[in-house]
């Protein structure tokens, strides 16, 4: 890629995860569908929090997790997002800066609290999330630093942000800036429910707005409204330059105009928590892409990063990821 200061600039939800091992009964009591991400009010979030046992707080957010992973691998990353001037906002800012991600957004005063997400992990390692968007939903065009995007090889955006019109406008502005500077744009579909809410606009983005797409098997099938994975891949092919579709223990599928390649992964024996698997796959894949690797090698590192993160609680690695590069 052409000369740049940052390998990647991410635009996403600045969220603090509140993680807890829990039971099927607690999931049912929360009113959420198991394995989903549901948006809740601050009052609903407080009610769900009362259902939980002991918790662990850790900064999260899909794109933010990917950037933290890339920084741990050795990439230069920057993040655009909003937090409140409160305790959780301080935690998020500290965690991003401590791992080496450039994050200097102003903390919002006299507004909603910093976003937080109750991540409930059942014994089968599946995660169900209840998210209060709070301050992170305030991202607007004013937050888009044109210089930062122009100095970044890739601008990475998350589908979750598409729920707010002002955030949507911010993303469109960022895409225009990146395109004007000759940079690449990447998108993660984020969640099947998010795809269902914004299918038409996501299809437009995939076919003309982004260069690199990340999705899991369920999300790509939801995008094309089919239960047939092969049909979804066939329809995806040629829509964007590169698409990386994860399939859990089956590895990942890399789709370009010219080819469809399956990259297998190693089975994980000590599965703990699937939170962040897709985020860390994207981290490994994008790191390799920034280094000019072949796509299959990018996917191998993505698989390795995803395989590592699901052996611990939470989506931020408890040890440096650089050793996985080899």
Essential attributes:
globular; 13 strands; alpha/beta; 326 residues; 21% strand; 8-stranded mixed beta sheet; 5-stranded mixed beta sheet; UDP-N-acetylmuramoyl-L-alanine:D-glutamate ligase; single chain
Structure described in brief:
With 326 residues, the protein is α/β, with parallel strands linked by helices. The protein has a single domain, classed as 3-Layer(aba) Sandwich (UDP-N-acetylmuramoyl-L-alanine:D-glutamate ligase), CATH 3.40.1190.20. It is 38% helix and 21% strand.
Topology, please?
Layout: E1 6-11, E2 15-21, H1 24-30, E3 37-39, H2 42-51, E4 56-60, H3 62-73, E5 77-80, H4 87-99, E6 115-121, E7 127-132, H5 146-150, E8 152-158, H6 165-180, E9 184-188, H7 192-209, E10 212-216, H8 217-223, H9 229-236, E11 242-246, E12 252-255, E13 260-263, H10 277-290, H11 295-309
Helix pairs in contact: 3-10, 7-8, 8-9, 10-11
Question: Could you please describe the fold and organization of this structure?
Answer:
- With about 325 residues, this protein is an alpha/beta fold.
- The chain has one domain (about 5-325): Ribokinase (UDP-N-acetylmuramoyl-L-alanine:D-glutamate ligase).
- About 40% of the residues lie in helices and about 20% in strands.
- It has helices spanning about 25-30, 40-50, 60-75, 85-100, 145-150, 165-180, 190-210, 215-225, 230-235, 275-290, 295-310; strands at about 5-10, 15-20, 35-40, 55-60, 75-80, 115-120, 125-130, 150-160, 185-190, 210-215, 240-245, 250-255, 260-265.
- The chain has an 8-stranded mixed sheet with strand order 5-1-8-9-10-11-12-13. A 5-stranded mixed sheet has the order 3-7-6-2-4.
- α7 packs across α8 (about 215-225) and α8 crosses α9 (about 230-235).
């Amino acid at each position: 890629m052409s000369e740049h200061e940052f390998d990647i600039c991410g635009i996403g939800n600045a969220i603090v995860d509140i993680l807890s091992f829990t039971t099927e009964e607690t999931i049912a009591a929360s009113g959420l569908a198991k394995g989903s991400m549901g948006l809740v009010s601050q009052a609903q979030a407080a009610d769900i929090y009362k259902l939980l046992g002991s918790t662990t707080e850790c900064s999260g957010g899909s794109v933010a997790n990917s950037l933290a992973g890339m920084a741990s691998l050795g990439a230069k990353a920057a993040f655009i997002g909003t937090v409140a001037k409160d305790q959780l906002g301080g935690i998020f800012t500290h965690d991003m800066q401590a791992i080496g991600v450039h994050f200097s957004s102003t903390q919002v005063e006299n507004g909603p609290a910093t976003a937080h997400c109750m991540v409930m992990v059942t014994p089968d390692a599946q995660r169900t999330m209840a998210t209060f968007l709070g301050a992170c939903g305030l991202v607007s065009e004013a937050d888009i630093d044109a210089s930062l995007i122009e100095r970044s090889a890739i601008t990475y955006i998350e589908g979750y942000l598409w729920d707010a019109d002002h955030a949507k406008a911010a993303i469109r502005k960022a895409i225009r800036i990146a395109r004007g500077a000759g940079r690449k744009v990447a998108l993660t579909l984020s969640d099947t429910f998010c795809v269902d809410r914004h299918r038409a606009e996501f299809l437009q983005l995939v076919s003309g707005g982004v260069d690199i797409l990340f999705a899991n098997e369920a999300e790509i099938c939801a995008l094309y409204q089919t239960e047939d994975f092969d049909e979804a891949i066939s329809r995806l092919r040629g829509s964007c330059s590169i698409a990386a579709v994860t399939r859990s223990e089956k590895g990942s599928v890399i789709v370009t105009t010219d080819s469809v390649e399956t990259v297998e992964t190693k089975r994980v024996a000590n599965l703990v928590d699937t939170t962040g698997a897709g985020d860390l796959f994207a981290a490994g894949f994008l790191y390799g892409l920034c280094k000019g690797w072949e796509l299959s090698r990018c996917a191998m590192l993505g698989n390795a990063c995803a395989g590592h993160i699901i052996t611990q609680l939470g989506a931020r690695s408890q040890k440096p990821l650089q050793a996985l590069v080899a």
